[in-house]
C-alpha cells in the first residue's frame, strides 16, 4: 500500500466514526467508563478525594476482662465490663455483640450451610462420588465430625446486666446477640454493662479454627501438654458505621471481622508454670516473671539480636513438672480493635527491641514464643522476620503503632490480631533426636510471619471491613509481604503474589470478581490475596511508577490509620494522590472476570513513496523481481524447455524492451503537478523531509482476546542487535477495546527484526505465544512413561491374590 493512501485510509476511518458505527450496532463497550455510578456518593463522612470527611465518626468500645483457663477441662470462664460510647449522630435503642464461638455449635448457620465437597471453612476437603467411584471423605474430616459430635461448643452466656445489677434483655441470633437498652443511647453518651460467659475450647487440629488448643501427648509430663491460642474468645461489639449501620452479618468463617477500637485491661489466670503472650503490655511482670527474666527483658530492649527471656532449658523444665497453682497475668492495650492471647508451659520466649526514633513508640519489642518443636527454625527466623516486617511496612505506611509485635507458634497456620500473631511452621524430629526443616518450611515461616505481622498495619490499624471485603486487607498485605519477601531474600521461592502467578486463576472458569462478598468467594486465596496483590504490583511497577504509587499508598494508610475505610475510599485516594485516573483499572481488575491476553496479530512495514517516477518505479520493479520465482517457470527452466519469444525474434515489440514500470512523460508531469499541489510551505517542507529521511514505518495490529484492557508493553529488537522497551498506555483501547493499530516510526537503517508484547511478564498476559512477532517455536519437553497397570478390580488377578501367589509379569 502506498503510504499516502494508507494515511488517507487512517483519516477516513476516524475513531469517532468507528465508535459511532460500533455503538449503533450495540457492540461498543466503554472500558474507561467512570466508576461514579458504582461507588457511593461522597458525603460529610467520606469525601470525594477518598479522605475521611469533616464529620467522620466511629464508635468506641472499652473492655475490662477477667478470664480463667481451666487446663484440664480445656474451658475458659470470663467476665467483662464493657463501656460503649456512641459517637454517631444516631440514637441507639439496642447494641449488637459478636459471639464468634457460636460458629462451632451444631446448629450454626456455618455448620448447616457447609456443602459436601465444597469450600467454606479452613480444613480438609471432601469430594462427591463420580461414576462408579465412591465419594471421598478425608480422615481429617471424619475427625472433625467426631469432635463436633462429642463436644458442646459455643458460648454459655450467663449474666447480661448494667453495673447496678439490672438485667438486660438479650436475644441470641446465631453468632450475634442483641442487647436491648433500658433507655435509648443518645449521641455522645456511653453505657456500661457486664457480661459473664464460658465456653469449651475447640481442638484446632480437629475442627480447623482460627484459635483453640493443641495437645502434645508425647511430652515428658504425664498426660502431655497443651498450647492454647485464645482468639474470638470474648463477646465483642459489632461495628456500627456511617455506611451500613450495624454490621450484623452472620459469622460464617471466611469473612473475618470488622470491629471497633477501644482500650483493654485484661487479666488471665492460668497454671503457674505457663507463659502467656498477649495483645498489649504486661502490667505485672514482677508477679509472673522471675527477677532474671525481667532483667533479660529489659536488656533485650537495646539488643542487636534476639535474646532469650525464657530459655529452652527453662521451657523444658516447665514441660517436665506439673503446676503447683495458678498465676494471674495482666495486660493493658490502648486503641486496639481486638485482643488475643496464648498460654502454654511449652513456650520458650525471645525478644529484641526495634527502634523507631521519633515515633510514638520509639522502642517496639519484637518477640517470639515457641515450643521445642519449633527448633532452630524459629530461633533463627521468627523474631528477625518480625523486625524486618516493621522496617519494610513502615516505609509504605506509618511507624509501627504499638509497643509490642509478637509471633507465637501453635496449631493455627497463620492468623493476626493487634500486637500478636499465630504462626504454624515447625521442624521435623529425626531418629537421632536432631531437628531439621525443609526449604518450604523455611519459606513458610518467614513468609507467614511477615504476612501476619503485616496485618497489624492492615487491618488491625487501617480498620477495613474483613467481613465484606477480604481483599482490602489480604490483597494489600499480600502485596506488601511479597515486597518484604523479595527484600529479605530475592532468591527464595516466593509465590502467589505477582502478576505471572495469577494467570491460571484468571483464566479459569472458577474465577469470580474481587468485589464478591467474602463468604461467597469460591477460591479465596487467589481471589482475595493473589489477584489484588498482582494488581498492585502492576500499578506500582508498570502503570503509575514506584514513586507515585508509594506516595499514594502512604497517603491512604495515613488518612485511614485507626479509622474504617471502604473500597471507594481506597480507590479514590489512590487516584487522587497519584494523579492518575484508574477507574478503568478498578473496573476491569476488581469488578469483572476478564483476563489479560493481548495478541500481536500482524506487523506491516511501510516505506514512503517519493512520488518521483524515476525513483519509485525502479524500486517497484526491483520489489517484483525480488518475489519468489513462479514454480512452473522454475521447473520449465530446470527442464530446459524452449521459450518461444527467444526462438522467434519476429514476434517481439516495444513491451519486450519496456515493462510496466517504464517511466513516461505523463508520469513526470503527474509528479510535477503533485509537487505544485503542495501549495502551502509547511506541506512541501514536511513532504521533502519525509522523503529525505526515508524512515521505516511499522503498523502493529493488536487484538484484546482476554477482555481486560492493559498497557501494551513492547520489547523491540532491531537488525543491528539493539533493543528498546516501549509502553503504550492502556488508554489506547479507549475507543475500541477489542482491536487497535499503532504506527511506530524508526529512522532509516533502524529496522525491526522482532517484537514481543509484555517481554518481562509484567501484566499477567495469559498467552505469551501470541505475544511474539514473528511467532516463535514454542519450547517444551517430552517425558517417556510406562503405562500403568490396571487399577480396577476387574483388571486385577484376584485369583492369584487369593492364592497368595505372585506371578511374573507378562512380557
Name the descriptors.
six-stranded mixed sheet, alpha+beta
Regarding quaternary structure, what we see is single chain
Strand content: 15-25%
Structure classification? alpha+beta
**Uncertain regions: pLDDT < 50 for 5+ in a row?**
1-24
Number of strands: 34
EC number: 3.4.11.-
Region (Disordered): 114-134, 779-811
Enzyme class: hydrolase
Domain Peptidase M1 membrane alanine aminopeptidase: 387-589
What is shown here, in short?
Residues 114-134, 779-811 are annotated as: Disordered. This protein is α+β, with helices and mostly antiparallel strands and 811 residues long.
Describe the 3D structure:
It holds the Pfam family Peptidase_M1. Residues 783-799 have a biased composition (Basic and acidic residues). This is M1 family metallopeptidase. Residues 387-589 form the Peptidase M1 membrane alanine aminopeptidase domain. GO terms for molecular function: metalloaminopeptidase activity; peptide binding; zinc ion binding. The chain has 811 residues and is of the alpha+beta class. It contains 23 helices and 34 strands. It has a seven-stranded mixed beta sheet. Helix 9 packs across helix 11 (470-488). The chain is elongated. The chain starts with a helix and ends in an 8-residue tail after the last helix.
Amino acid at each position: 500500500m502506498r503510504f499516502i493512501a494508507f494515511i488517507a485510509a487512517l483519516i477516513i476511518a476516524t475513531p469517532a466514526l468507528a465508535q459511532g458505527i460500533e455503538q449503533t450496532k450495540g457492540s461498543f463497550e466503554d472500558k474507561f467508563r467512570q466508576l461514579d455510578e458504582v461507588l457511593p456518593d461522597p458525603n460529610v463522612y467520606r469525601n470525594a478525594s477518598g479522605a475521611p470527611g469533616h464529620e467522620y465518626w466511629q464508635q468506641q468500645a472499652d473492655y475490662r476482662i477477667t478470664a480463667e483457663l481451666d487446663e484440664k477441662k480445656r474451658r475458659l470462664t470470663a467476665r467483662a465490663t464493657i463501656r460503649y460510647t456512641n459517637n454517631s449522630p444516631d440514637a441507639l435503642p439496642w447494641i449488637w455483640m459478636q459471639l464468634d464461638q457460636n460458629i462451632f455449635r451444631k446448629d450454626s448457620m456455618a455448620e448447616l450451610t457447609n456443602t459436601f465437597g465444597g469450600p467454606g471453612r479452613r480444613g480438609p476437603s471432601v469430594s462427591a462420588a463420580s461414576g462408579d467411584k465412591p465419594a471421598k471423605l478425608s480422615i481429617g474430616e471424619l475427625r472433625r465430625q467426631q469432635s463436633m459430635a462429642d463436644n458442646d461448643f459455643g458460648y454459655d452466656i450467663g449474666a447480661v446486666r448494667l453495673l447496678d445489677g439490672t438485667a438486660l434483655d438479650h436475644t441470641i441470633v446465631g453468632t450475634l446477640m442483641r442487647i436491648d437498652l433500658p433507655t435509648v443511647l443518645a449521641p455522645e453518651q456511653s453505657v456500661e454493662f457486664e457480661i459473664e460467659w464460658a465456653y469449651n475450647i475447640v481442638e484446632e487440629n480437629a475442627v480447623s479454627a482460627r484459635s483453640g488448643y493443641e495437645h502434645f501427648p508425647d511430652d515428658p509430663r504425664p498426660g502431655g501438654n497443651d498450647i492454647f491460642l485464645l482468639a474470638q474468645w470474648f463477646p465483642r461489639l459489632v461495628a456500627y458505621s456511617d455506611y451500613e449501620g450495624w454490621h450484623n452479618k452472620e459469622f460464617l468463617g471466611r469473612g473475618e471481622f470488622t470491629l471497633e477500637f477501644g482500650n483493654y485491661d485484661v487479666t488471665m489466670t492460668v497454671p503457674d508454670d505457663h507463659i502467656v503472650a498477649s495483645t498489649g503490655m504486661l502490667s505485672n511482670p514482677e508477679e509472673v516473671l522471675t527477677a532474671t527474666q525481667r532483667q533479660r527483658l529489659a536488656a533485650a530492649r537495646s539488643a542487636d539480636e534476639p535474646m532469650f527471656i525464657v530459655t529452652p532449658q527453662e521451657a523444658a523444665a516447665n514441660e517436665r513438672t506439673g503446676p503447683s497453682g495458678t498465676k494471674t497475668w495482666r495486660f493493658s492495650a490502648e486503641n486496639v480493635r481486638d485482643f488475643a492471647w496464648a498460654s502454654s508451659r511449652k513456650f520458650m520466649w525471645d525478644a529484641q527491641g526495634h527502634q523507631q526514633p521519633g515515633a510514638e513508640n520509639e522502642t517496639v519489642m519484637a518477640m517470639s514464643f515457641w515450643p521445642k518443636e519449633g527448633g532452630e527454625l524459629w530461633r533463627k527466623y521468627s523474631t528477625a522476620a518480625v523486625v524486618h516486617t516493621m522496617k519494610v511496612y513502615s516505609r509504605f505506611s506509618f511507624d509501627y503503632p504499638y509497643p509490642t509485635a509478637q509471633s507465637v507458634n501453635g496449631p493455627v497456620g497463620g492468623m493476626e490480631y493487634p500486637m500478636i500473631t499465630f504462626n504454624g511452621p515447625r521442624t521435623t524430629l529425626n531418629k537421632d533426636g536432631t531437628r531439621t526443616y525443609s526449604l518450604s518450611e523455611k519459606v513458610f515461616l518467614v513468609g507467614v510471619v511477615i504476612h501476619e505481622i503485616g496485618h497489624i498495619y492492615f487491618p488491625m490499624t487501617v480498620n477495613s471491613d474483613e467481613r465484606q471485603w477480604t481483599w482490602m486487607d489480604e490483597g494489600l498485605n499480600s502485596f506488601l509481604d511479597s515486597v518484604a519477601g523479595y527484600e529479605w531474600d530475592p532468591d527464595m521461592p516466593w509465590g502467589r503474589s505477582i502478576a505471572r502467578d495469577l494467570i491460571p486463576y484468571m483464566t479459569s472458569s472458577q474465577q469470580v470478581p474481587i468485589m464478591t462478598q467474602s463468604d461467597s468467594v469460591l477460591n479465596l486465596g487467589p481471589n482475595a490475596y493473589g489477584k489484588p496483590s498482582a494488581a498492585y504490583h502492576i500499578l506500582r511497577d508498570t502503570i503509575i511508577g514506584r514513586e507515585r504509587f508509594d506516595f499514594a499508598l502512604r497517603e491512604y494508610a495515613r488518612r485511614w490509620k485507626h479509622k474504617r475505610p471502604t473500597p471507594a475510599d481506597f480507590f479514590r485516594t489512590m487516584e487522587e494522590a497519584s494523579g492518575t485516573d484508574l477507574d478503568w483499572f478498578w473496573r476491569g481488575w476488581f469488578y469483572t472476570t476478564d483476563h489479560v491476553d493481548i495478541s500481536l496479530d500482524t506487523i506491516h512495514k511501510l516505506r514512503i513513496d517519493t512520488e518521483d517516477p524515476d525513483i519509485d518505479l525502479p524500486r517497484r520493479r526491483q520489489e517484483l523481481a525480488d518475489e519468489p520465482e513462479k514454480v512452473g517457470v522454475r521447473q520449465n527452466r530446470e527442464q530446459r524447455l524452449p521459450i518461444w519469444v527467444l526462438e522467434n525474434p519476429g514476434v517481439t515489440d516495444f513491451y519486450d524492451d519496456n515493462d510496466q514500470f517504464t517511466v513516461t512523460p505523463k508520469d513526470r508531469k503527474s509528479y510535477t503537478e503533485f509537487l505544485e499541489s503542495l501549495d502551502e510551505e509547511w506541506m512541501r517542507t514536511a513532504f521533502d523531509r519525509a522523503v529525505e529521511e526515508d524512515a521505516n514505518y511499522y503498523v502493529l495490529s493488536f487484538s484484546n482476546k482476554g477482555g481486560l484492557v492493559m498497557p501494551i508493553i513492547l520489547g523491540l529488537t532491531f537488525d543491528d542487535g539493539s533493543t528498546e522497551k516501549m509502553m503504550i498506555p492502556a488508554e489506547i483501547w479507549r475507543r475500541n477495546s477489542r482491536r487497535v493499530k499503532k504506527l511506530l516510526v524508526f529512522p532509516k537503517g533502524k529496522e525491526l527484526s522482532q517484537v514481543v508484547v509484555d517481554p518481562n511478564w509484567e501484566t499477567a498476559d495469559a498467552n505469551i505465544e501470541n505475544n511474539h512477532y514473528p511467532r516463535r517455536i514454542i519450547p517444551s519437553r517430552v517425558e517417556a512413561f510406562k503405562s500403568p497397570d490396571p487399577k480396577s478390580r476387574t483388571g486385577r488377578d484376584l485369583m492369584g491374590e487369593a492364592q497368595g501367589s505372585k506371578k511374573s509379569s507378562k512380557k
